[in-house]
Design goal:
Layout (H helix, E strand, L loop, with lengths): L1 H12 L14 H25 L4 E4 L3 E9 L2 E5 L3 E5 L1 H4 E2 L6 E20 L26 E7 L5 E7 L19 E10 L4 E4 L9 H4 L12 E3 H7 L4 H7 L1 E12 L9 E7 L14 E9 L5 E24 L1 H28 L4 H8 L7 H32 L1
Parallel strand pairs: 12-15
Antiparallel strand pairs: 1-15, 2-9, 3-4, 5-6, 6-8, 6-15, 7-8, 9-10, 9-11, 12-13, 14-15
Length: 410
């Protein structure tokens, strides 16, 4: 029976309507908390959402970008291994046509006049060491080596291999052969486009002066639209020393950031450059630091026999990374963010209500004032109506009696 009555009460409460009742609570602590919360939410909405994050703008982060690089610089060297030689971009830039990644050779191991044949493997390779012929299984490739074992163990304690002979030397010059590459320059042409707003721009000054790019050099304050950089400065901006890095090579990241406020003039949309070293900085303590690879140049002599010059190139690889976003005023994000701010205002009022009704000493008193049940009973309403009619009749009767007395006195 109790269950049925409680179930009926629950069902009946579903059709009740709750309306707001405003109660002015003269509690200074809660009032101050409420106003501070409102000011904090208003400051967040205006300061962070609209001013810092530009919440009134529609943004486009799907930026399209194109990068073209071109290097310039000539240096002459004279070493005991190579002799006098002139180096230009064809020799030290690999590949010669750069895009968003280019490599500049600064040091190398060169093994000239290699021909296919048999010779001793490099003694620094563990798999090539032997004591007798049984340690050199014929046809077995030397792990991390230069050729295939022939089955003979030579007097120097290494296996004989069929390879390009003589095999590569492992003695790296302690000073970079192309240390003067720090003075080489690179031209970085970057074109970007934001498809949503159909906005495009380049990192080059729009000018009809053809001599501008021949005479200028990048300066953050004086020439921000001259994208010609010295390699030594790029490495120093990344926090490294060019001469030290040039011995074993490394990887430098060049970041180009485009943050464009299209509500302003297009001239205010400028590229921001930053630089960082991407490989291991501890070049002397890590065997994995630096950057190198091998390539060869092939020739034929007068007899038609093929030979080659092997290069193990050490140098600096530059990775160019472009990203950014553009924004323009739109009514939709503006309305959404304003609505979110108003909703946060409501959250502040809800928190103050919870504190007022449950966490202070007079919470019971405030609950009694805030919540009030009102029911409408038809029978009591009829009684009130009849009582009102009787009062009206009584008033009317008293009025008539007063009138009769007045007439008699006259």
């Amino acid at each position: 029976m109790d269950f049925c009555s409680s179930w009926g009460s629950c069902c009946q409460s579903l059709v009740y309507y709750k309306t707001q009742k405003f109660v002015i609570a003269k509690n200074k602590n809660v009032g101050i908390l409420y106003r501070v919360g409102q000011l904090a939410i208003l400051g967040y909405l205006l300061g962070w959402v609209f001013l810092a994050k530009k919440g009134y703008q529609e943004t486009d982060i799907s930026m399209e970008s194109s990068v073209i690089t071109k290097l310039k610089g000539v240096v002459q060297t004279n070493t005991s291994d190579i002799g006098p030689r002139l180096w230009d971009v064809v020799d030290y830039v690999i590949p010669p046509q750069g895009d968003n990644v280019f490599f500049v050779m600064t040091n190398m191991l060169m093994t000239p006049d290699q021909t296919e044949g048999v010779c001793a493997e490099d003694s620094s390779i563990l798999d090539a060491r032997c004591r007798n012929n049984s340690d050199c299984q014929p046809g077995e490739a030397v792990i991390a080596g230069n050729g295939v074992k022939t089955g003979r163990c030579l007097s120097n304690g290494t296996c004989e291999v069929y390879a390009w002979c003589p095999v590569e030397s492992s003695k790296l010059p302690s000073k970079p052969i192309l240390g003067k590459a720090a003075n080489f320059t690179v031209f970085i042409k970057n074109t970007i486009r934001f498809p949503k707003f159909n906005f495009a721009k380049k990192n080059i000054l729009e000018t009809s002066d053809y001599s501008y790019l021949k005479n200028c050099q990048y300066d953050k304050t004086k020439n921000p639209y001259c994208p010609i950089f010295r390699l030594g400065e790029i490495v120093s901006w990344a926090g490294s020393n060019f001469q030290e890095m040039a011995v074993k090579g490394g990887v430098i990241g060049i970041m180009i950031e485009w943050n464009c406020d299209l509500d302003k003039s297009p001239s205010k949309c400028n590229p921001m450059y930053s630089y960082t070293r991407l490989d291991n900085n501890s070049a002397d303590r890590s065997i994995t630091s630096g950057y190198n690879f091998r390539f060869a140049k092939y020739y034929k002599n007068g007899m038609g026999a093929e030979f080659r010059t092997l290069f193990k190139a050490y140098g600096i690889r530059f990775d160019i990374m472009v990203n950014g976003k553009a924004g323009r005023f739109s009514i939709i994000p503006t309305v959404i963010n304003i609505g979110s701010g108003l909703a946060l205002m409501g959250v502040g009022a809800f928190i103050c209500d919870i504190i007022l009704l449950y966490f202070i000493k007079k919470s019971t008193f405030y609950r009694g004032k805030k919540y009030e049940e009102v029911s409408y009973d038809h029978s009591s309403a009829e009684d009130e109506k009849l009582e009102a009619e009787r009062i009206d009749v009584k008033v009317m009767s008293e009025g008539k009696v007063t009138e009769e007395i007045t007439r008699n006195e006259n």
